[in-house]
Amino acid sequence: MLNNILNLSKLVFAILLISLSIDVFAHGVDDDTRVFLEQNVGVQFFPFMYIGAKHMFTGYDHILFLVGVIFFLYRSRDVLLYVSMFTIGHSITLFWGVLGDIHINPYLIDAIIGFSVVYKGFDNLDGFNRVFGKQPSTKVAVLIFGLFHGFGLATKIQEFGLASQGLVTNLIAFNIGVELGQFMALIFIVIAINFWRNLSSFQRFSSITNTMLMSAGLMLMGLQMTGYYLM
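Predicted structure:
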């Protein structure tokens, strides 16, 4: 039974990494979205909201980080608190990055986002107490990494050189969409984790799961740094 579970986990992990590798090197959005953004003129509230929701809901790096954040959160108010810290962080830098015309290399910022996944998996394994004898503030870490995730979102928007006309409104719509996509993803994540917590396998395999989370983050970092040096 154990071998079957481990083999299934490896298969799921491999599929995830293949999907990650495809999306990671693209550093953008699909062709239809690209054409729309490049041809956009003026306020396009609902299309931008849809694009934001789609990007967050299918953004593996963001989703992996959120899985790590809520993995050991048992109370709804704690989930709300930590997700709010993440939301505040990425909302600030999304607007700051685009409106302030702050350009960060997308490979480097996505490597940092990959590191955020590694960090949270390591944190969930109680790695800081075991290795360093001290636990950093998880709330502060989630907020700080939220800032980096926001810059990652900003780099996707900046690729297209959107017109200034309607830019603020479109950004607001995009950010609302991001939050909607995040909310939809969280629903699935919370339901799945809560269901798993009722099974005896949760405690047995929680360490393996967070180790796999760290491995996925390391793979993301490696892919992004490879892209950076080859660009």
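Summary: Confidence is low (pLDDT under 50) at residues 4-12, 15-26.
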